[in-house]
Amino acid sequence: MDSTPSRSSSSAFDLVSSALGRYIPRRGAAAAAGPADAQGDRTTRPRVPDNQAAGRQDQILGAVNLDRDLNITRCNLDAPVFAGLDAVVGSPFADLLPPGDVPTVTRRLRQVWETGEAHVARIQRLRRSDGSELVVSMSILPAAVPQEGLTVSVIAMARRLHLYAAETAIGTSLDIGDTAQSLAQSLLAWGDVAAVDLDFAVWTGEGVTGQGQGRIRLRRAALVPDRAWPEGYVTPGDDLPSDASRLLAQAVRRDDAPQAIVIPDREAVERVFGSPRVMRALVPGDRAAGVACIPLVLDGSPPVVLGVAEVWRRADCPFHDSELFDLQELVARTAHHVDLARQHQREHTQVLALQRRLLPRTGGDTVEIASVYQPATPDSAGVGGDWVNSFPLPDGRTALVVGDVVGHGLGAAATMGQLSMEARALLSAGLAPDEVLEHLDETVTLMDDAESGLAAGYSALGSTCCIALYDPVSHRVSLSSAGHLPPVLVSPDGHAGPLAVRPHPGLGAEFALREPFEVRTFGAPAGSLLVLYTDGLVEDPDVSIDEGISRLADAVSRVHPWDALQQAARQVVSALAPGRQRDDVTLLLARMVGYRKGDTETWRLPARDDAPARARAQASVLLRHWRTRDDTRDNVLLVVSELVTNAVRFATGPLTVRLIRAGHGLLCEVGDTGNGRPRLGRGGLFDDGGRGLHIVHRLTTRWGVRWTDTGKVVWAEVAG
C-alpha cells in the first residue's frame, strides 16, 4: 500500500470530507467547517434523514486540516463517536492531545510538513473536553499544494482492530508494571478510567495456584489516565484495603468460577461496596457511576485468578453486552502475558538475591571496599551472571574477585554461584591467582560437557574472571585475568589508567586456544584505588570499548582520597551506566590502606639449630615494645618457636619470620623454601613427632599455609 497520497487538484481534507458526506448530516459538517469551508467547499451533500443518521452511529472516520502553525483551519468530526472533541477552528491541534503525547505528535506533524511523506496509522489518544480519552488510528497526510497545509484523518478504533492492536502492545514487555499499564491503556477505550489490580503474589513472582480465596491481597499495578486523584484513592504501587481486596475477589468468583460482573450505577456501587473507606479507595470521583470488573484468569483446573481489571464509566454511558464481551476477550487474551511477566519476575528475584548474596560485606582492616551492583532493566533478557566479591584471607591479605558468566537467568546464576564459591575456597586455601583460574577453567570445561552443560541448554564457555590479591605489608597486588577487562589503578596523586593485562580467551576455551594464566605484580601504595568492573559499565554501542574504559578511568580519577567511597561508587555508576541498560553493571572500588610501618617486623634467619632461639629473642623484644599482654606474649613466642623449629627440620635455605599486629590479634608468619605441606596428624601419647603442630593448633584461632614462588609460608593467628 502506497502511503503517499496522490497529487490531485482536491486536497486530502476534501477527499476525506466528500467520503463522509453520505453519512454525516450537512448541517453538522457546515457548522464544523466554519468560514473557510463555506467559501472554499461548494460540494452539495445530500441531507441524511434523521432515521438514516441514527442508523449510522457506528461511523468512525473524521478529518482535521492544519496550517503551518499546526492550528485547525477546517474540521469534520461530526460523527457521534467524536462527541466531546473540541476541534475549534483557529485552536492548536495540540489541545486535542494528552499532554504527554504533544512533543511526539508535534514532531511527526512537522516531519510530514517538511518531507511531504505521509505518516499512516499511528495509534493515538485524543482528549475530550470532559477529561476522558478516545483511542483512534491517526494518519497525517500532506496536501498537494503546501499552502493547503496538512490533513489529519482519524479513525475511531473499531473494537476488533483495537483488540488486535492492544494484544500486540501488551505482549512487548516482561516487566509486570509495564504489562499492567499497557493493559489499562487498552481498556481505556471502553471507559473513562481503567485500573488493574494484581495479586501480591504476582508481584513477588510466587505461584498463586494455592492461594485461598480469603487470603487474596491486591496491589494496584496500573491506573489511567494520569491525573490528580481524590484523597484516599488507591494509585499504582498502593495495596488495596483488605476489605476491598476481599470484596473484589468475591465479586469475580461467583459459584467458585471467575466471572466478569457489571455494577451499573452509583446506587448499586454504594450498595455493593458498602463501606465509605472502600468507596474512597476504589471509586475514581463523583462522576464515575458504573464499573465492569473482569478477572485476569489463567486456564486450569481450577482456574487461577491473577487479579482484577476495572473499567469505570459515567451514568449516561451504560455497558452493553457486546462491550462486555470485548472486555472479557481482551483481558482473557492478555492474562498469559501477565503470567509470563510473573514468571520472569520470579526468576529475576531469585537471581538478584543470589547476586546480592555474593556482594562483598567488608574488606577487612587493610582495604576499604565499596561496591555497586545494578541489575539489567526488568524487560531485558534477564539478570546476567555478573558477580563481584572481596574478602580478607586468613593470612592477612585481601582477595578482590570479579567475574562475568556468559548468559542470563538461572543457568548463569547457578554457574556464577559455583565459580564464586570455588574461587573463595581456593584462595582461602592459599593458592595463587593463576592457580585458582586454572581450577575455574577446568570447572567450566567439565560443566559444559555433553552430559551436563549442553544437555541442560546452557553453556558457560567464554566466561571471564579477574583475581587480585593485596598484600598489606608489602603494599603490592598480584593479579591474574581470564579474558576479563583490565582493572583500573588510581595512584595516590590522582593519575588513573588501565593495567596492562595479557589477553586471554576466557574460561573453558578449547585446548588448542588455552594459554597459561600469568600473574602480574605491581605496587599499590597506601591511598591507591583499584577499580574492578564488568563490561556493562563501559560498553556503549556508539563508542569503542577502549574509549569506555578511558571514561571510567577519568571518572574514578576524580575520587578524592577523603571522599566517602560508597557514595563515590554510586556517582561513577550514575555517570557511566546507560539509563535503559541491557546488561548488569558491577563496580568494585578498593582503597588500599595497608599496615602502618610500626605494625610489622620481619627477620631473615639461617636454617640452623639456633634459629628458634634467635627468633624467640627478637620476637620477645618486639612484643614488649608493643606492650603485648603477658599471656599473649607467651603464646606468640611458643608458636614462633614451634614454626621455626618445623621449618629448620623439614626445609632448606634461609627462613623469614614476620610478626604483624592486626586488628584484635597477632599474625605470625614463617617462610621457607620447602614444598612440603605441614599436616596435623593423630599422634600417640608417646610420639615425639608432630607435637609442634598440635601446640600451634591449640594456641591459635586459625593457621594455614600459602604457597609462594620460592616455597611456602606457614601462618598462625593468635588472639590479642
Question: Characteristics of this structure?
Answer:
27 strands; alpha+beta; disordered N terminus; 33% helix; five-stranded antiparallel β-sheet; 720 residues
Detailed description of the structure:
The chain has 18 helices and 27 strands. The strands form six sheets. Strands 2-1-5-4-3 form a five-stranded antiparallel beta sheet, with helices on both faces. The termini are far apart.
Our count of helices gives 18
Main-sheet strand order equals 2-1-5-4-3
Specify Rg, calculated over alpha carbons.
37 Å
Distance between the termini: 85 Å
Shape: elongated
Unreliable parts: 1-9, 21-57, 210-214, 450-455, 684-688
Amount of helix? 25-40%
**Quaternary structure of the protein:** single chain
| Main beta sheet strand tally, sense and closure | 5 strands, antiparallel
DSSP E strands, number: 27
Output mean pLDDT. 78
Map the helices and strands.
Layout: H1 12-20, H2 26-40, H3 50-54, E1 61-66, E2 72-76, H4 102-115, E3 119-127, E4 133-142, E5 150-156, H5 159-170, H6 176-187, E6 193-199, H7 200-204, E7 218-224, H8 242-251, E8 253-254, E9 257-258, E10 261-263, H9 266-273, H10 276-282, E11 290-298, E12 304-313, H11 321-358, E13 367-374, E14 384-392, E15 398-408, H12 409-428, H13 433-447, E16 464-471, E17 476-482, E18 488-490, E19 496-498, E20 520-523, E21 529-533, H14 545-557, H15 565-576, E22 585-592, E23 600-605, H16 611-625, H17 630-650, E24 655-662, E25 665-672, H18 691-699, E26 702-707, E27 712-719
Antiparallel strand pairs: 1-2, 1-5, 3-4, 4-5, 6-7, 6-12, 8-9, 10-11, 11-12, 13-22, 14-15, 15-16, 16-17, 17-20, 18-19, 18-21, 21-22, 23-24, 24-25, 25-27, 26-27
Helix pairs in contact: 5-6, 5-11, 6-11, 11-12, 12-13, 14-15, 16-17, 17-18
